[in-house]
Amino acid sequence: MNRLISAGLAGVLSMALALPAAAHTGHAGDAMFVQGLLHPLTGIDHLLAMVAVGVWAAQNGGRALWLLPAAFIAMLSAGAGIGMAGIELPAVEAGIAASVAVLGLLVLVNKRVPATAAALLVGAFAVLHGHAHGTEMPQTADPILYGLGFVLSTAILHGTGIALGLVRHIPRRRFATRALQRPE
């Protein structure tokens, strides 16, 4: 199963690398829903952190399965609002880099944490990711459409991570048995 997870992450990474790497350079022209949708996919840091939230939610299971993505999206939206309002936060880029490292490590070691504590951690990181999205929104963009785009994209990335995390829990024998059964 580790090969399957690695293959899934490699696929997500290759999709991200195929897009222009513009997550932290701003976007030209009218940026509406589609630009907001693409924004999290065009920065490897955003992509990895958001998929990691989903994988970690699946690893923790139970309430964390929905609480971590919900906390991330809520705080991402709050952070975006702060960024769109022009309010500066210290060390946003360093915090985003730390989110990739910390969340990646938590996934790697399969660290289980109480759901509320895990939600607080991902929420803190989400504020920083949201701030970056908000400050990088082009001036000509409609904030609502742009925001809806990156929130939807984030939810899809969380869902991808959850799927990757849950695939690990399928017993190999049961999967192989079902695949080899003849239809009646």
TrEMBL record:
InterPro entries: HupE_UreJ. Residues 1-23 form the signal peptide. The keyword Glycoprotein does not apply. Keywords: Membrane, Signal, Transmembrane, Transmembrane helix. The keyword Transcription regulation does not apply. The chain crosses the membrane at residues 38-58, 65-85, 91-108, 115-132, 144-167. This is HupE/UreJ family protein.
